[in-house]
TrEMBL record:
Biological pathway: Carbohydrate degradation
Reaction catalyzed: D-ribulose 5-phosphate = D-xylulose 5-phosphate
NCBIfam families in UniProt: PRK05581.1-4, rpe
Binding site for substrate: 15, 73, 149-152, 182-184, 204-205
Recorded name of the encoding gene: rpe
SUPFAM superfamilies listed in its UniProt record: Ribulose-phoshate binding barrel
Entry protein name: Ribulose-phosphate 3-epimerase
Statement: the UniProt record of this protein carries the keyword Repeat: no
Cofactor: Mn(2+); Fe(2+); Co(2+); a divalent metal cation
Source lineage: Bacteria, Bacillati, Actinomycetota, Actinomycetes, Propionibacteriales
Similarity comment: Belongs to the ribulose-phosphate 3-epimerase family.
Keyword Isomerase on entry: yes
Cofactor note: Binds 1 divalent metal cation per subunit.
HAMAP family, per the entry: RPE
Length: 234
């Protein structure tokens, strides 16, 4: 069987959602110094999800404070018009929701045409098969392990079955598509997500609240995932 190349180690990516928005530049520098692999911006439009967060100008203002790649998780209905602005703001990866795009295949192609990598996110109830016909257009699949809109929610273990199904779809395709999980990720929940086949782990409230600081949180998450990670050299 053809297997898709996977990252050599689990990738740990913090969500900026729990940050102190009054000092975002410092917050971004702290995250970078903690050894994270990327930084995720949770972009919420107040319509697809009942919360409002970061416009592209906020992300652009934070961009000079770090060399770590930025990803934008767009929880936005029909995001096509906004894509150029998030890419111009410095996001190397732009993730859209399958449930929010009328023409998902076209939207993913537009992200790549803008010079960024593309990702597609699935809410907990959305079946894995939704991505089958767009795998060649995407660089990442994000399986939400909470319902999107807020940080600090409990991990939904039932999503692990879908993560395992997505793993098989990606492996069978032979394409270099990352598999990301997001929501309720802690040292308790990350082993199950890693064992199911995830490569990339978003952590927000647990990472920020760690009593020994962000570098310790990142190290502990990476170690807890690595014990169950089945990835191999790309
Ligand atoms: O996309 C989202 C929420 O919509 C996530 O990025 C969460 O914000 C992750 O935060 P925790 O669940 O780790 O607090």
């Amino acid at each position: 069987m053809t297997r898709s190349p996977r990252p050599r180690r689990p990738l740990i990516v913090p969500s900026v959602l729990p940050a102190d928005f009054a000092r975002l530049g410092e917050e971004i520098r702290e995250l970078s110094d903690a050894g994270v692999d990327r930084i995720q911006w949770d972009v919420m439009d107040g319509a697809f999800v009942p919360n409002l967060t970061f416009g592209p100008d906020v992300i652009a203002a934070a961009r000079p404070h770090s060399d770590v790649p930025f990803e934008a998780h767009l929880m936005v209905i029909n995001p096509d018009e906004l894509l150029p602005r998030y890419v111009a703001a410095g996001c190397e990866l732009v993730i859209v929701h399958s449930e929010a795009c009328t023409h998902l295949h076209r939207t993913l192609g537009r992200i790549r045409d803008l010079g960024a990598r593309s990702g597609v996110a699935l809410n907990p109830h959305t079946p894995a098969d939704v991505v089958e016909n767009v795998l060649s257009e995407t660089d990442l699949v994000l399986a939400m392990t909470v319902n999107p809109g807020f940080g600090g929610q409990a991990y939904i273990p039932a999503v692990e079955r879908k993560v395992a199904r997505l793993r098989r779809l990606i492996d069978d395709s032979g394409l270099p598509v990352e598999l990301e999980v997001d929501g309720g990720i802690t040292t308790e929940t990350i082993p199950g997500a890693a064992a199911s086949g995830a490569d990339v782990f978003i952590s927000g409230s647990w990472l920020y609240a760690h009593p020994d600081g962000k570098p310790a949180a990142v190290r502990q998450l990476r170690a807890a995932a690595a014990g169950r990670y089945q990835g191999e050299a790309a």
